[in-house]
Task: structure prediction
Amino acid sequence: MKKFLFGALVLGLMSACNTDSLTNQNEIPQDQEPAIAGALKRSCPSEELRAQMLQKNPSLRLKAEEIEARTQNFVNDLKVGKVLADGTVEIPVVFNVIYNTSAQNVSDARIAEQIAVLNADYGATNSDINKIPSAFQPVAAGDVKIRFKLVATNRKQNSKTGWKSNLEEMKKASTGGIDATDVNKNMNIWVVNSILDENGQAGTLGYAYYPENAGQWYDGLVIGYQYIGKTGASAPFNLGRTVTHEVGHYLNLPHLWGSSDAGCQTDYSNDTPVSPGPNYGNPTYPLNRVCGGVSRSQMFMNYMDYVDDKSMVMFSANQKTRMQAVVAASGPRSGLR
Result:
């Protein structure tokens, strides 16, 4: 059983970024997206891929709804003291590195750095956690009680210069990729030289699949080699937070603005302020934006926004509960324990 116990019971029970230099109390209309001219923006099509799959596959949609219902039951049980949230789960991680040039063959040291970043971010021991504004400190997650352990690294050279996210060729040996290592027991991360959208355009940092895909051959994360670890990674996404963000999706966290680019929708965590859409770059707190005519201070420093790596520092308490529900004994990713 891959877990650390700090108490009695284990939990039981359902992709990436840019802002102009905004001044304090700057209010942005609902339909206006902050942007920096010419800056590289975080890009993660996890939500779009999910929406397409749920629309095409009614059984997958029902599974997603069931996971969400179980997650809400888990949340309610925690509220009334039926579950003791005192167990830390360790997730086995397999890196599958597919490279063309030697520079794209990320080193063992960078992979180790990435695991360290995950453990710090999910354990709330990240050195920049003091950046959480005082207004959000009461709802900060603290230790999510999920850890990550590298169990294998697979490597393969391929002449391809890019991999389309909608084809998943990087995940099949028959198409030049690397087959997953038991997706029921391991979180697989494929590292590639370039992620292309369905039109063949580059620019995606990474993406991941939600828990309703647990057990499927394609389940896991795909990350551009430029965004693994810290040493040699590409600024402004050079602190390993792209993987932190995508693991959030893998553990059932939507973006703060909900599952649609329309924004102002629920992310199922009532302690994250409603958001009209992503924030980019390195915003100045407080940053106010409008949903439904109501101005709210944004939690842009949350790992599930689209800001640069150095501005991401926290999960919320409700996000912690959602992730715990996923890896709990009866959760959709219980096999990772």
Remarks:
- The radius of gyration is 19 Å.
- The CA atoms of residues 128 and 178 lie 35 Å apart.
